[in-house]
Each structure stands twice: as C-alpha cells, then as structure tokens.
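Hi R.,

Here are the chain sequences for the assembly we discussed:
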Amino acid sequence: MTDEEIIRLFGERSERAIAEAQRRYGGLCRRVAVNVLGSAEDAEECLNDALYAVWNAIPPECPQSLCAFIARITRNHALTRLKARRRQKRGGGEPEVLLSELGECVPTEDFADKLIDGQHLGELISGFLNAQSEVNAAVFTERYFHCRPIAEIARESGFSQSKVTSILHRMREKLRRELAEKGEFI
Amino acid sequence: MTAESIFEGVSYIDDALIERSGGVLKRRRFAAAVRTVAGVAAALVLAFGGLLAYRAVILSKTGTDSPVSPIITAQLDGADYEFVKKGSEFLKEHGLSVPTEELKSAYIGGCYVEFYGYHDMPDGEFEFYELNGCPNRDIIIGDRGGRRSYWAMMCIDLPGGTVSERLAHKGYYSAEDVHSLRVYGKKVRGREKTNEIWNALQNGTEIDGNRYDALIKGDGYDEANAQEVYTRHADSAVEIVFNYGELNCLRLTYYTDIGCFSGIGYILGEVTF
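And here is the predicted structure of the full complex:
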C-alpha cells in the first residue's frame, strides 16, 4: 500500500490505516525508538504511542512524507520518555553518548542559556546538512536522527568505523561554527 | 542551546534527509564495491593497452612496519581505480621495495608513478625535496613523521582561498589552480609545536609566517599521548580533487585516520599531465 493510500485511510478514520502504517514503517520506527531508549519493551510502548499520535494528527495534517512524519513523531515520543528517565537519573547507554557528542556542537557557554525553538533549530541544521556532501549528511542523519551506533553505520556504508567517527567529528565541528554564526541572530 | 536542544532540533530536519539517509549509505557501499572491481579491470586494460592518457604520481605512506592504508583513487575518463593497501604491501605488489633514496617508478593503474625519498628521511632533505629538489612540478606532497618525532606539515597556498574554503565551495580545483599550487614543507619537532600549528590551522591564523591549510600526518610513535595527538591529526585528513577538464580527472583521497603508530616512510609525489 502506498503512502497516499495510507493517508487516505487515516482521513477516512479507518483503523486499517494504523495497521498499514505499522506494516510499512513499524520496523524503522521501532529501530529509532530502540536506539534512543535502549529497551525493546519501552520502544514498543513508544511506537504504540506514536501511532496513536499519528492517528490524532491525520487529519488535519497531510504529510508530504509519511515516513519522515511517523519517524519524527516516534523520535519525539522516545525523547520525551528519555527526558523523563533522565529526570529520574536513569540515564546511560547510547543516548548519553549521543548527547555528549552533540554537546560539542554548542558554540560557547554563552549559548547555553539561549532558548531556540526546536523547529527553528531543525531548520538551521537542515540548512547545514543540505550544504554538506550527500554521504556526510546521511552519516550525520543516521547517527543523530536515527540514533544508530557507529558500528552499524560503518557496516551499512562500507566505511571503517574510524572513518565514520572522523566524519562525525568534522561535521560536529562545522555545525558548531555554523550555529555560532547563525545563532547570533536568533 | 544545549546538547538536548540540538538533539531535539535534529527531530525537525528536512523530510528528505530523513528519508534518503539509509539509501545514500547503501548506495555508497555498493558504488565502492563496484569501483574496486571496475578498477582492477580497467587497470588491466590500461596496463596492456598502453592507453596512458596522463602521467601522475600519487603519494602514499609507506614503511615496512607501517599499518597505514593509503586510499588512492585515480579517475580517468569516468573510470575509477582504487587501491586500498598498506603502504608497504602496495609497493611490494608492484615490485617495489620500501623506497630508498634511489628513485623508483612504476606504472600503477595506468599512472606512471615515481617515488622519492625513503624511510625516516634525515633532517634537511625534507626541505631539499620539498622546496628545491623538484622544480617545475605541479604538485609535490611529502609526508613523514614517526620515529624521531618529526612532523610533516603542509602549507598549501592557493589563490583565492584556503584548501578548505575551496573544497567547501567548489569541491575541486581547476587545472589553473593546480598549476599555481604551491606546497611548502615545514618541519617541526615535538607535540607542543604540532599542537600550536594545529590550533593556528583551526583558527585560520598565521604561525611562523605560514598559514597552514592542511596538516597531514603525524603518528606520535614515541609520544606519550600518541593516541590523543594522532586522533587530532586524523581530523585533518585531506581530500583534494584535481580536475583537468572534463575527461582527465585525478582525485587524490588521502586519509590519515586509519591508524599509524610506528615508523612512517616518506614519499614525494609528482603530478604532471
């Protein structure tokens, strides 16, 4: 079933829409949730929440890309759970590593108090990624959107792990500079 | 702005980036595999057919005990030749020993390759080759480092911008650029100096009257914190694309992040067409 057909089912309030969306994008979303939360059980709950949120969102929403729409909602749900878990001081695992890596992108301490809307920050990051090579942007996205381990990205791309690490390091440094430059005007 | 907010911001990147990232990586892997196979076939054709459209020397790290893997890609008429070998194995396969001061040459993948220099080149000769010994070359790149804690520095001076600026904006150099490319060798000793130069390079400031655009190599063989220094140098891996019109294009990809903690040889390269 195509994305358009699934979206139409959502529009018609047919519960089959959820089953079809899960069939098509469940694997991808489950992987994102597992990568963020590090627990298959939590990920399953997160996926259910996300699909419910999609059900509530369409309509009125009519996403251009159902894949990105569902993945984004799943990731946001996973992040919300992760934040709750961190508040209870139950952190650890890959997400902590990701946060520590992304900490390198915060331009200076002055920026720590600067509040930037997530969506606006997303636009800045998109602009940055679109200016990079396709492969580098993909490595960054796989790491920080899909939250995949470096070893997995290396396997998929055919790069060595050290090469992936090196690409990410350079990208973070460039992003830091970009955010410092553009963040000034926010 | 915190790490968490950036992590959250990544949620809102463009749909297209999210959708295509997996596919891009898979395609990259496939293309690399195809290139390797095509490269071997094309190299055989060139070797037996004598279809040498250009002459090039590509630098490579070497050394009997060097675990460095140079990745060398030559691209001609749309075909790619890629070699991924340890420096020493790479040479042996082409009937060469680790380079000595005697000039060695070979045809590799359709390129006429000349090697200069030798393992652990002594003081003074670096400058000799880099600055005086190879006149009228389009490009000479040397690298060395290792046992005696020397660090090879490259200062690449291009009209109209630094290497990184050019790479960022164009992704390649035109033939005109290459002919005006100048490469300086600068030898320094010890980690502190290296770090100083590294910082200058990062900040785009001058040091000792030179503005460094790329810093290639430095293995820290006998340094206490070799890993740390090495890792920082790895970030300066350089990818330079020399574009000679539409047909003849040599891409030199040079990674220093593959691992190198023992003796490093020294090779100067020449690129002429």
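The interface with chain A takes residues 1-22, 24-26, 28-29, 32-33, 234-235, 237, 255, 257-259 of chain B (CB under 8 Å). The first strand of chain B starts at residue 55 and ends at 56.

Let me know if anything looks off.

Best,
T.
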